[in-house]
Amino acid sequence: MLLDRDSWQEILATLKKHKLRTGLTALGVFWGIFMLVFVLGMGKGLENGVFRGFGERAKNIMFVWPERTTMPYQGFQPGRYPTFRLDDIEAIQETLGDVQHVAPRLSMNNVPVYRKEIGETREIRGELDNMIKVEALKLFTGRYINERDIEEARKVAVVGQRTAELLFGEEEPIGQYIRVQGVEFQVVGTFGPQQVKPWTESDMEAIVIPLTAMYRTFGTGERIDYFVCMAQPNVLVSQVEPQVKDLLKKRHHIHPEDPRGVGSFNLENEFLSITNLFGGIQAFLWFVGIGTLLAGIVGVGNIMLITVKERTKEIGVRKALGAPPSSIVRMVLAESVLITATSGYLGLIVGTFLIWGVSSLMRANDVVLDNFHNPEISLSVGIGSVILLTLSGVIAGAIPARHAARVNPVVALKDE
Amino acid sequence: MIQLKNIRKAYQTGYNRLEVLKGIDLHLKEGAFASIMGSSGSGKSTLLNILGILDEYDEGEYRLDGKLIQGLSQTEAAQYRNRFIGFVFQSFNLLPFKTAAENVALPLYYQKVDRNERHKRAVEYLDMVGLADWSDHLPTQLSGGQQQRVAIARALITQPKVILADEPTGALDSKTSYEVMEIFKKVNNDGMTVLIVTHENDIAAMTRQVIRLRDGLIESNGSPVAATPNTPGHD
C-alpha cells in the first residue's frame, strides 16, 4: 500500500494522539505473533530433540532375524530354526534393487578382552563394513572396518569409546593390540553411539571385528544373528520389508503364510507415528498461535471501528472537500496495517530473539536435554507470519474502512 | 451559474413520506452574492445539501455551470465537490491536528497537487484573508474569527465555481461576523459566486439577493436581478 508523506503524517498524528489506546491495541497483536513464533519454535525444539534420538540418518531401516517356524512346508517340520548366513545377505543385495544396505551382525557376549593386565568381559560383534552407515553410530577416531578387512579376515578391531578408555586410559589406542579370548587384534578405530541413551550404552562398550575374522578365529559357524536393512532413499522400508521376508522364506523353505520364521521390526512405522504426532502438535500450535493472533486482530478491528466513529465528522469534512471513498478506505486500512505490521513485526523479532537466546544459551552451557534440542524458527514460519500480519491488518481494517467509506458527507454540515 | 428546475426531494421516515422540497426553481448568475433564509424545517439545509452535491434530489434538474448534476457515483460527486464547490461551515470544521496552512491545502491534496506547490498556494490564500503570519498555527491556537477565515481560504483555494456557506457567522460574535462578511464581499467583488445560508437578518442584508424559503418552496426572492419564482426555463 503506497501512501504519500501526508497520509503517513496524518496516521502517525492520530496514533500519537491516542498513545495508550494504540499501545494496548498493538500489544494484542504483538502478543499474538510473539506466542505464535515462540510456541512454534519451542515445538520445533521438542521435535528436533525427539528426532535426534533416531540418529542423523537411516530412519528408513528395519531389523530382520530368524525365528522358529510354525508351519510345515516342503517336508520340513514346524519348530525349526532357520540359520541366516552371509549368502542370504548377498542374495538380498543382488536381487532386491530397492535395498541400499544390508548390514549383518553376529554377537558373542561376555568375551574376555585384555590389554596387558587390564581386562574386562565385553560383547564382540562380527560385522561387515556397513553397520555404521545404517545405525546411529559414529566414529570417534581412526576408521571402521573396511572391505579389505573382510576379504582378508584381518584381525583388526574397532573399540567402543568407553572400553577404549578403560583399556588405554590416556594413551592413543590406534595401532595398539588387544587380546580377545587370547587372540591379538589390532585397534584401528574407536566408535560410539551418536547419542548416549539407555539403549545405546552397549554401543559404548562393544568391540567390532570383521565377521570373517570372527568365523575363522572363534569357530562360531558361518551364521549371523540378525541384519539391518536400509531401503533406497526414495523407497519406503515398509515396501521393502515383505520383499526381504519373502526372499528369505523361499531360501529357507519356510511356508509363505507362516507368520513366524522370519522376524522383523520396521523403524519407519515408529518414525511415521512420531512424525504424525509432531504434525498434530504443530497443527495444534498453529491453531493456538493463530487464535491468539486473531484475538489481537479483533482488538485492532474494534479500535479502528471506534476511531472511525470518533472521526466521523472529520471524514465527512474530508468528503465534502472532495475526498473520494477510496482515499478514506486507504487511510483506515493503512492505519490498521501500520499498527498490526509494526507491533507484529516487533513480536516476530522478540520471539525469534528469545528462541535464539534459549538455543544459544543451551549450546554455550552444553545443556543436553533428552527431548529438547535446538529450538528454531524456520524461514517459512517467519515469512508466513509476515504475510499473515499484513493480511490481518487488512482484515482488521476492512469493516471499519467500509464504515468510513459510507460516512455521509452531510455530517460535515451538521452542528451538534 | 446555478440553475434549479422544479427540484423535489422527500424523505421516507417509516410509513410517512416527508416532502421537504416541493419544487424549487432558482437561477443564480455568475458573480451572484445571495443568502438563503428560512426557519428550521423550511428545507434550506436540504437545499444546501443538494446544491453542495452532498445529497441527491428526486425530481427536477440541477445544473452547475451548465453541467447536469445527476446520478453521480460517490467518487464523481467527490470530484465535483472538490472542483466546483467551496464549503464554509458554521463550526469551521478545520482538522485539529493540521496547521492552518495544511488545512487550507487539504482540497488540493485530493487534486494530487504537489506538496510544495500546495503549501505555496495555501500561504497565498492565507495572506488573502490576512492570516499569512498564522500559517503554522494549529486551529486551537486561533480565535473563532481567524478559524473561519482559514476555512474561507480553504474554500477558495481550488478556485471553485461557487462558495456555499452554511451559517458561516453562526458561531461568531457580531463584530467578527462583520469581518467575515467583509471577506465574502471582497471575494464576491473578485467575481466569485457566493451563497450564504443564514437566519440572521443583518447578515442577509449584507448580500445582494435574499431568497426566503418556507415549507419547501421559495417564498420570495429579493433580488431584482435574479429570476423570480415560478418562471421556469433559464437555459
Walkthrough of the structure:
Chain B: Residues 2-234 form the ABC transporter domain. Chain B: Belongs to the ABC transporter superfamily. Macrolide exporter (TC 3.A.1.122) family. Chain B: InterPro entries: AAA+_ATPase (IPR003593), ABC_transporter-like_ATP-bd (IPR003439), ABC_transporter-like_CS (IPR017871), ABC_transpr_LolD-like (IPR015854), MacB-like_ATP-bd (IPR017911), P-loop_NTPase (IPR027417). Chain B: Keywords: ATP-binding, Nucleotide-binding, Transport. Chain B: This is Macrolide ABC transporter ATP-binding protein. Chain A: Residues 22-246 form the MacB-like periplasmic core domain. The complex is a heterodimer of chains A (416) and B (235). By secondary structure, chain A is an alpha+beta fold. Chain A folds into three domains: 5-54 and 272-414, no CATH class; 68-98 and 232-260, no CATH class; 100-224, no CATH class. Chain A contains 13 helices and ten strands. Chain A has a six-stranded mixed barrel. In chain A, strand 2 and strand 3 (118-127) form a beta hairpin. Chain A starts with a helix and ends in an 11-residue tail after the last helix. A six-stranded mixed β-sheet of chain B has the order 6-7-8-3-9-10, sandwiched between helices. A four-stranded antiparallel β-sheet of chain B has the order 2-1-4-5, covered by helices on one side. Chain B has one domain (2-222): P-loop containing nucleotide triphosphate hydrolases (Rossmann fold). The termini of chain B are close together. With 235 residues, chain B is of the alpha/beta class. In chain B, helix 3 (100-109) packs across helix 4 (115-128). Chain A binds chain B through residues 4-6, 10, 13-14, 17, 313-314, 317-327, 405, 408-410, 412-413, 415, and chain B through 45, 48-49, 52, 54-55, 74-75, 78-79, 81-83, 87, 89-91, 93, 95, 97-98, 106-107, 109-111, 115, 154, 158, 166-167, 170.
